Every structure is written in C-alpha cells, then in structure tokens.
Amino acid sequence: MRSVAVANQKGGVGKTTTAIHLAHGLALSGRRVALIDLDPQGNATLAIQSMGLDEAAGESGAEGVFALLRRVSGELWLLPSSGSSRNLGPDTKLDTRGLVRLSAELEKGGFEWLVVDCPPRMDHWGWAGLQLCQEVLIPVQAEFLAMQGLSQMLRTLEQAQAQFPGHGELMGVLVTMVDQRHPIARDVVQDLRQNLGPKVFESLIFRDMQLVEAASHGKTIFEYNLFCKGALAYADFVREVVHGRTSTR
Ligand SMILES: Nc1ncnc2c1ncn2[C@@H]1O[C@H](COP(=O)(O)OP(=O)(O)OP(=O)(O)O)[C@@H](O)[C@H]1O
Ligand SMILES: [Mg+2]
Questions:
Q1: Residues in the 5 Å CB sphere of ion ligand 2
Q2: Is a pLDDT exceeding 50 seen at residue 59?
Q3: Residue 74: what pLDDT?
C-alpha cells in the first residue's frame, strides 16, 4: 500500500482540495483508496459529504477500524475527522497507535492507497500524519516567496525521517492556485524547480472557482464538473502520480 500525507504548515494552500482529488482520482482509476481526514476542522469530510457519507458505516458486519470507515463512492473510503463527529470534539485525544494499527489493517484489507489530509500545523495531528505515511506531498500556493515558505516544511520532513525511519519521504511538491494571467506563477514554478528539480510535479493546479463551488456542494470536482480547468488539472496530476512524468508537457 502506498501512503501519502498531504501536508504543509502553511494554511490555505490547497492541502484538503489536493487530498480529496488525489484520493477520488485514484479511486476512479480502480484503486481501493482510504482517505483519512486528520484535520479536526473536518474540511475534507465536509467537502465530500454529499457523495454518500450517510450510507451505513463500513461494510455490514465490519469490525474494528473497518466499522469506522465510510464508503464515499466506488472504491473511495473515508475515515471522517473526529472533529466532524457528533460525539467527539476537536480536543479529543489523538490515538496515534490506533492510527498506525489502522494503516496496517487497511493494507491487509486490500487497500492500495492511503491518503491523509493533515492540518496546517505540526501538532499531534499533523505529526501523526507524517508518522502514518511513507510519503509526503506538499501543495504550495503559486505566490511570492513560495520557496521560503516551503523550507520550514522541508525541515520538518527531515525531523520526521529521523524520528520515523521509512516515513516522511518527499513524494513531491504540487504548485496550486496558479493564475495563468499572472506572470508571478511562472517565476514561482521556475524558482521551485531550480531548488527542487524533479521533485516539483509537472502538473500545475490552476485557480478555478469551480473547485470552491464543488466543495460547497460537498462533492469533488470529478462529480461536480468533469470538464472544467480544475478537474482537468487534478486528473492530469493523478495521472502523473500513477504513471510518472510524460514528455509531452
Ligand atoms: N485551485 C484552486 N482554485 C481556486 N480555489 C481553490 C483552489 N484550491 C483550493 N481552493 C480554495 O481555497 C481554499 C483553501 O483550500 P484548501 O482548504 O484546500 O486549503 P488547505 O491548505 O487545506 O487549508 P487549511 O490550511 O485551512 O487546511 C478553499 O476555499 C478551496 O476551495
Ligand atoms: Mg485543509
């Protein structure tokens, strides 16, 4: 099972949007995917809540961690945020060991991908995301000084790699909210590529209000409007994750 934490200490850079579209995109390509909403704000849970979360929890007769999972759509499963549960508040103590056990059980249960949406802080929850996953995907907003903002996160990854061997490897940096009319986006991408080379995904996520609308309707863009700029960009990104770079770009 490949496991990836979508993380960046900076807020509002597109972590949740990226996590739900990576997870749903992989599921649409036939992979069995578990998405864990590790942010007590529960944004990922809310952003896909209209896609089938209200169905019976897990598979009938499911036990242990599988009883906590909700089937969202097809092969996409969600472990909702504890903050979004009626019984648990955002202050609920985090059971990191339970989460690590859960990851092992998911693998035994035939899951091929685990995608974790992390909060914009390296608190217990953020740290648990790095501990759970072998790889880390960092969304970075296409804006002035993007590279400086990224350095803090890269230092955090080094700490995670030292503390949890085999975890916290940089899968890549994804540039989000790219405004094509703005020349700064091109400079940001160039700067990131100079510093990180092939670790910067070729796919760029363009700014598209349809992504905001989709989330407000509780759906991914793949359900809401498959042919808008945002959907095409995320589909491109998922293809790059699965098949690697294409030389046509
Ligand atoms: N490509 C995009 N184009 C336009 N709006 C976007 C795009 N990506 C994300 N957004 C919007 O920007 C806001 C922040 O995005 P998102 O919630 O994914 O970021 P985040 O990093 O998870 O935030 P937080 O740090 O609060 O968890 C949301 O309203 C989202 O709908
Ligand atoms: Mg978020």
A1: 15-16, 43
A2: yes
A3: 92
Asked whether 211 and 226 are in contact (CB, 8 A), the reply is no
**Looking at the domain assignment, is residue 102 inside a domain?**
yes
Contact call for residues 139 and 8 (beta carbons, < 8 A): yes
CA 18 to centroid of ligand 2, rounded, Å: 9
Domain-located, residue 190 = yes
Question: With contact defined as beta carbons under 8 Å apart, do 118 and 38 qualify?
Answer: yes
pLDDT tens digits, 174-189: 999 999 888 888 889 9
**How far, in Å, are 136, 138, 229, 243 from residue 8 at the CA level?**
9, 6, 24, 24
Q: What is the CA(191)–ligand 1 centre distance, in A?
A: 22
Domain that holds residue 158: 2-243
Task: Locate the ligand 1 atom nearest the alpha carbon of residue 208 and give its number.
Answer: 3
Is the Cβ atom of 208 under 6 angstroms away from ligand 1?
Answer: yes
Total count of domains within the chain: 1
**What is the reported pTM?**
0.93
Q: Whose Cα sits closest to atom 23 in ligand 1?
A: 12
Pick 91 or 190 by higher pLDDT: 190
Distance 15 CA to ligand 1 centre (A): 7
